[in-house]
Structure formats: C-alpha cells, structure tokens
Amino acid sequence: MTPVLQAQGLVKAWGGNRAVDGVSFELAPGEMLALIGPNGAGKSTCFNMLNGQLRPDAGTVRLGGRDITGWAPRAIWRQGVGRTFQVTATFGSLTVLDNVRMALLSHARRLLGLWQPAAGLMTREAEELLERVGMADQADRPCGILAYGDLKRLELAMALANRPRLLLMDEPTAGMAPAGRLALMSQTAAIARAAGIAVLFTEHDMDVVFNHADRVLVLDRGRLVAGGAPAAVRANPLVRQIYLGGMAD
Amino acid sequence: MSRCGAGVRSRADPALDTLVIQALNGLASASSLFLVASGLTVIFGVSRIVNFAHGSFYMLGAYLAWTLVSHGPLAGLGGFWGFWGGILLAALAIGLIGALAEMTILRRIYRAPELFQLLATFALVLVVQDLVLLFWGPDDKFGPRAPLLRGAVEILGLRFPRYELFLIAIGPVMLGLLWLLFHRTRFGILLRAATQDREMVAALGVDQRLLFTGVFFLGSALAGLGGALQLPREAVTIHMDMAIIVQVFVVVVVGGLGSLPGAFLAALLISELHAFGILAFPRITLVLVFLVMAVVLVLRPHGLLGREPEGAPPASEAGQPLPGPAPRWLRGLGWAALALLLALPPFLGEYPLILLADFAALVLFAASLHFIMGPGGMASFGHAAYFGAGAYAAALLARHLAAPMEAGLIAAPFFAGLVGLAFGWFCVRLSGVYSAMLTLAFAQIAWSLAFQWIEVTGGDNGILGVWPSEWARGRLAFWYLSLALCGLGVWLLRRAIHAPFGMALRAQRDSPLRAEAIGIDAFRIRWLAFALAAAAAGVAGSLFAYGKGSVFPSSLDIPRSVDALLMVLLGGVQTLSGPVLGAIAYAGLQEQLARLTDLWRLVLGLVILALVLFFPSGLAGALQRRRGA
Ligand SMILES: Nc1ncnc2c1ncn2[C@@H]1O[C@H](COP(=O)(O)OP(=O)(O)O)[C@@H](O)[C@H]1O
Ligand SMILES: [Mg+2]
C-alpha cells in the first residue's frame, strides 16, 4: 500500500544551525506514529515542513505518493491534512461552533458567500464534530475564554472538518494536566482508528506515547537516532541517555 | 523635489546641459529630503512612531527661520551670523518643540495601536496648521539669499547656483555626522541599542524617557533644519507640511523604516526620478514616484535596506466577539430614527436637507472603511481614494459623455471597486505602518492624477455641473435617494459581515496561522474585502458629487481619508453601529466647529488628541461599557 506520508531527506537550517538535518520516514494509512525528542530537537520545524508552513532547504514531502514539497499550507490542507499547533491557534472572536463552522465552510468552498448569514449554515455538521471531541456543551462560548485543554479539543475538531487522511498534531497535550492528556489522546486515537486516519504526533509524556503510538521515532539535534515499536524504543539505551540528558525541563 | 529648475544654459550640447542640470537639481533636492527623512527615520527607529507631524516641524522650521533671519534681533546683526545664526537657532527651537510634544503627548501612546499613533500625530498637524496661520498669516514668505553662497558657479560651462551646490554637500555630510553620532557617542550607541532591544536598554539602567525625548529632539531638529535651509530656495507657505510629509513617507518607506543609509539611498532615487521624470513625463511625475514606491514595497516589503521588525506586533483591538443582536431598546431607537428620517424631511428647509444628504454619504463612507478595519483588521490611511474614484467616475461621465445621474450612480461602485482591486492588490499584503503608508501613497497617486491631469479632470478647478437627473433635483427627492442608497449600502455591508465572507474576514484577522491551516486564502479574502469597501465608498463619493454638483481633488486628499478614519474610530472599531454613530457625530462636530470658529482645525486637532488619549474604543465602545458595567 502507498504510504500516506513520505518524508525524504528533509533539511532546514537557521543560519548555521541545522534544526532538521536529513530526516526521512514513512507513515502508513491509519498508523499512529509518535515523534519524540528533547526540546529543540527539531520536531516543530519538521511539522512545519510537512504542512507547508516552511519550505525545506532540501528533501521532499510526498502525500499519497504525490510530491507536495513547497505547496502552501492551505493547498496541503485541501489534500486532506489536518493540523493542530503546539501553541493553539483558533479564532478568538468567534464562538466555538463558528470556529468549526469556518473550517467546514472552507472545506465546502463556501467562504465567498456574502448574503446568507453564516449562522444558518452547516450547523448540524459543526455540532457533530464538536460532539465527537466532547465539546458540544460549549458550542456557544466565545473561544477566547476557553480553558487550554478545551482549546486543544477545539483544534482537533477543526482539524477533522475536512475529513483528513492525515493528522499532524504538534504536542497535542502540552499544557494539560496528566489525566486530561491520556483522555484526550485516547479520544484522538479512537476517532483516528474509527475513521482510518493516520496520525503523526509529538509528545513529551511517555505514558501517552507508549499507550497510543503504533511506532515511535526519536529525533535528536535534527537527526533521527532511533525508531521502532514502543517497547523497543523504550529499551534503547541511546534513547534513555538522550532523555535523561535533555528532558530536564 | 523642489520647484526650482536652477541652471542657466550658456553653451555645450543643449540636451546634455539639461541632463546635467537636472541631475544636479536632483542631488540638491535629495539632500534636503534626506535631512527631513533622516529625522523621521531616527524617531521611528527608537520609538516605533511614524510621526505625521514631522512635516509640520519642517514647516515651522522654515517660518521660524524666516522670522529670525528677517525680523528678530539676529536680523539686526545681518550678514553671516544674522543668517546662519537664525537657521541654527530655528533648528534648535524646533528640536525643543519636538521634545515637548514627546513629553506631553506621544509618550502616552507608545503602546497604543499604530493607527492611533498616526492619528494622534495627525492631530498635531492640524493644530500646527492653525497656529501657523494665526502667527504668520496666509501669505507666502520670501527669505533672503544666503551670505557667502550667492550667485552661481560654472560647471562644464553651465551656471549653477552656489547654494544648490552647498545643499548637495550637506546631505552626505549630515549622513556622516549622524553615523559618527550613532557609532562614536554614548547617546548614539544607546539609541542604537534601543532600536534593537528596548528591554535590554531598560535593564542597563538607562533612563529610557530621557532617551526617547532626546531622539525626538534630534529628529525634530533635523526636520527644522531641513525647513530652515529651504529659505533661500523657495517661498515659505502654509502647504509645505503636507507636501513634504508625503515625500518623506515615500523616502523612508522605500529606504526601509529606521535605516539611515536606506533613507539616503531612497532620497537620491526619488529625487533623481523626479528630476528626470519632469523631462520625460511632466504630467505624471508624482504618479511615477508613487509607482516606484509600490514596486519597491512589493519586491522588498520592508524597503531597500530595511529589516523585518522583530517581536510581536503591538496589540490590536482584534479578538473581541461581534456584539450579539442589538437589545430591544436599541433596535426600537433605530426604527424610530428611520421613521423620523422618512417623515420629518418634508418639513425641513433647504439647508438641513443638504446636510442630511451629506451625512448619509459620510455614513456609508465610514461604514465602508469600518468593513476592512473592524472585521478585516486592516488599516487604510487612504480610503478617500475610493470615495474620490466614485465621485470622479460620476463627474467624468457627466462631463465627457453627458451621462445622466443614473449611469453615474451605477458606474461609480464599479469604477471605485476596480481602483480598489488594483491598489488593494499591493496594500493588503502588508500590515501595520507599512500598509497604512502604502494606502496613503496610493491615495496620493489618485490625488495627483486628479490634480495634474488637467485636460481630463480639470485639475484644481475640478469638474462643475455634475447635477442629479430632473426627478432627483429637488433637495427632498435627493435626500430620499441618498437615504435609500446609503441605507442599502450599509445594510449590505452588515449582511456581508454576518455571512461566511465576513466570518472568514474576521477569522484571518484573529489568526492568520489557523486561517491558512484550514484552507482560507487570507490574501484573497482581504483583497476582495478591500475592493468591496472601495465600491461602497465609491457610491458614497458619487452621491456626494451629485449633492454638491461638482468634484474637486480635495475629494480624495489626505484630510478626507483622515475624516473617514476619525469617523470609524470615534464610533469604535469593534461595533457595528459604530461607523454610523461616528460619522454623524464627527460630521456634526465639524459642521458646528466650522460655523463657530475659524480655528476649527485647532479645535478638531485637540478633540482628536483627547479621543486618542482618553477614549481609545470610541463612542459606541464607551456606551457598550456603560451597558455592560
Ligand atoms: N524561526 C526560527 N528561527 C531560528 N531558529 C529557529 C526557528 N524555529 C526554530 N528554530 C531553532 O530550531 C531548533 C529546533 O526547534 P523546534 O523545531 O521548535 O524544536 P522542537 O519542536 O523539537 O522543540 C531550535 O534550536 C530552535 O531554536
Ligand atoms: Mg516544538
């Protein structure tokens, strides 16, 4: 089967600092792949190259076999890639429901409508998405006042609006309490499995990683240094060393 | 870009003559321009404030120098010290005035949104204009020639004024002095540090206030010196402020805000372009200059030698939810007002009806600007361009094709919308000050076309005889027509705000990152919004034209753009009723002021300052807070 995502030889340098230095990996349909590594290892930079926010200095990104290197994020989104951010990005002046509605309207290419009030459009679909992430009861709140964990869930709902085949989740549980983290990732995993969505996520909480990932990649100073089944990675002495050295934060 | 075409031809190849002389003229203008621009850019580098009043300081410098040189005690000295002493004293005095303005006003708005800063300094422009009129009167002033620099020298067989040569030298000399100041003195090194990292300087225990006041002194003194040095060269007039500030904006934007070498380079480029442009395209020199600016900004959004500003942009007012449906009492009030507007006018006289029709046009004008400022989060400092485009569309059709009003009213939004599409394509890519200055520059392109292309637009004399069709010629009928069209326009804009398009507009304002990540093409949304707003402003402009029966370049000048901004800000950016209230309040205020006092600019300036300092969220915002409290 064609991999959903193929990264090949990705490089990104800031000045002399090679934040990502020749990263290659593949992601199978429906697979949950965790990308771990200490702070500053280059995880977010990797994500930003995968979803088009950054143009790689070298290397290619393929989606379902198609070369999408250098495409704009919005074009990559149209190919079925959903994204959540390390620091949540939502529309602060819109309600929770309208945030999701916005994503749905965009997917349906109905953003240029000038006449019909948006309030009457795609409400049912938006409510369903909120239901799926457990946010239905907060639909009418302005999202500027949400708790951080709820914002993360809202982002997930928005990322699901275009029926993605791939979700890119950069630290989906950062800033949440440990109990909330496991709950959110269980929810995400269940949704992804049910819809056959492949998920690439970064995560600092090892409980989350080893409970939910099918496979784990370890990034250190821009290079992939280990990878494989969670148990194998956990037992890898190199990984232990990196983590004991770099996870003091 | 002085008016002066110095140089008297004697022999040599006439074509070559002209070229050499024009090149030298260009150099002299470049020096003058650089002096003023360096002041603005130094101030911006440290304080991040684009000082609209910089041109006013330039003008004050010229007036003050004129008084000192020809009337003050120094004038008695005569000769060398009488002249040069006066020039230097004028520059120092302007430096002190700039420092004073910083301490009393600008210091309070360092953290305000950029638009408010521009407005506050524009208020200073208005105040200075009236003060100059008050002290010096409206007549042009002519200064004496400069001692030691009278007469001309011969270059390649061409006679060229000595004073112009002196000016040519002063630009590079000043650049060198400024370089020494910034690299060899403690004050300068601290200033440079403050440009790069304000917190760090604070941490060093340096009194930042003193530093900021100092930089305003320096920058303003440079403006004053630039103005004073024009004395032997051209007449001192009350229009110097606007003429220079627009050029200076162009120079610092093209050179890169905050960059001294950039300002020097850009001053050279612009001045030479102007000098040679006069030879090649005498009619459209201004257009040429602004086009170059637009092209530079598209290729290098932060200017030739500018750097991308670091850190987060200052807080905008974005992020507030749209107010829900209006409370019952407010809606009731609205309907009652509408009923009054329909029922009362038959009993009103001619003059109130004219005023009402004007107000209607202004309300639509304000609502159109609000559309891009509020939901869109973009600022336009040149919205009059589209108001004027509508007005001129109507007037040109009437003058050249004898088209009836109906045709003009239909053509206006299309024409203004097209102009909006063209200008907007450049403007909506940038943000903050850069965008504000680019919109201003485009509005000046439109203005200079109307002003310079006399065959078509009638230039300063405008176009007369733009009357409504027979059925709408009565004041009452015209009022109902205005009410219908403007009401329709405002209502359509409101619908658009609540429709998916308006929501997308707010979405890209709230989070460009997320908007892009869910497939929203922010550029396209902003661009279309800009064009829609332009079209609506065009309708307002055409109605205004038919109401007055004439169109003049003033329908697209800077003060008119500022009118629109003030109406929106007065009403409050984040409300829907804001532009309506703001337009009525502002137009009413201006009308009353103009009736009560000749010094309406002065009063208006003070009102704007009060508004910016004390009511940054506007009238409707203040009402809302009261309701919410
Ligand atoms: N925009 C940028 N400019 C300069 N350096 C950057 C930028 N973004 C990231 N970096 C650097 O790249 C490296 C990797 O950062 P990042 O991808 O955010 O790591 P992670 O997400 O793994 O914590 C870090 O050293 C960081 O300082
Ligand atoms: Mg990261």
Assign the structural class of chain A, choosing from mainly alpha, mainly beta, alpha/beta, alpha+beta, or little secondary structure.
alpha/beta
Strand order of the largest sheet of chain A: 6-7-8-3-9-10
Helix/strand-derived category of chain B reads mainly alpha
Q: What is the overall shape of chain A?
A: globular
The largest β sheet of chain B comes out as:
2 strands, antiparallel
Oligomer classification: heterodimer
Most extensive chain contact?
A-B, 39 and 31 residues
What is the radius of gyration of chain B? Answer: 25 Å
Q: Which regions of chain A have little confidence, pLDDT < 50, spanning 5+ residues?
A: none
Helix content of chain A: 25-40%
What string, H for helix and E for strand, traces the elements of chain B in order? Answer: HHHHHEEHHHHHHHHHHHHHEHHHHEHHHH
CATH fold name of the largest domain in chain A: Rossmann fold
Q: Span from first to last CA of chain A?
A: 40 Å
Overall radius of gyration of chain A = 18 Å
The proportion of strand residues of chain B reads: under 5%
Any idea how many domains of chain A?
2
Shape of chain B: globular
Q: Give the count of helical stretches of chain B.
A: 26
Say how many strands of chain A there are.
Answer: 10
CATH architecture of the largest domain in chain A: 3-Layer(aba) Sandwich
Protein name (chain A): ABC transporter ATP-binding protein
GO molecular function (chain A): ATP binding; ATP hydrolysis activity; L-isoleucine transmembrane transporter activity; L-phenylalanine transmembrane transporter activity; L-valine transmembrane transporter activity
Pfam families (chain A): ABC_tran, BCA_ABC_TP_C
GO biological process, one term (chain A): L-alanine transport
Care to describe what's here?
The complex is a heterodimer of chains A (249) and B (629). Chain A has 2 domains: 1-80 and 164-248, Rossmann fold, CATH 3.40.50.300; 91-163, no CATH class. Chain A has 249 residues and is an alpha/beta fold. In chain A, the strands form 2 sheets. In chain A, strands 6-7-8-3-9-10 form a 6-stranded mixed beta sheet, sandwiched between helices. Chain A starts with a strand and ends with a helix. Chain A is globular, with a radius of gyration of 18 Å. Chain A contains 9 helices and 10 strands. Chain B is mainly alpha-helical and 629 residues long. Helices cover 72% and strands 2% of the residues of chain B. Chain B has 26 helices and 4 strands. Chain B has helices at residues 14-47, 54-70, 73-77, 79-104, 114-136, 162-184, 186-196, 198-203, 208-228, 240-255, 260-280, 285-299, 328-343, 350-373, 384-401, 405-427, 432-452, 454-457, 475-498, 500-510, 512-517, 522-548, 558-571, 578-596, 600-614, 618-628, and strands at residues 152-155, 158-161, 463-464, 550-551. In chain B, strands 1-2 form a two-stranded antiparallel ribbon. Chain B has a two-stranded antiparallel sheet with strand order 3-4. In chain B, a hairpin with a 2-residue loop joins strand 1 (152-155) and strand 2. The longest helix of chain B has 34 residues, at 14-47. Chain B is globular, with a radius of gyration of 25 Å. The termini of chain B are far apart. The chains are: A alpha/beta (249), B mainly alpha (629). At the A-B interface, helix 2 and helix 3 of A face helix 19, helix 20 and helix 21 of B. The complex binds adenosine-5'-diphosphate (ADP) and magnesium ion. Adenosine-5'-diphosphate is lined by residues 14, 17, 19, 37, 39-45 of chain A. Chain A: Keywords: ATP-binding, Nucleotide-binding, Transport. Chain A: Pfam families: ABC_tran, BCA_ABC_TP_C. Chain A: It comes from Teichococcus oryzae.
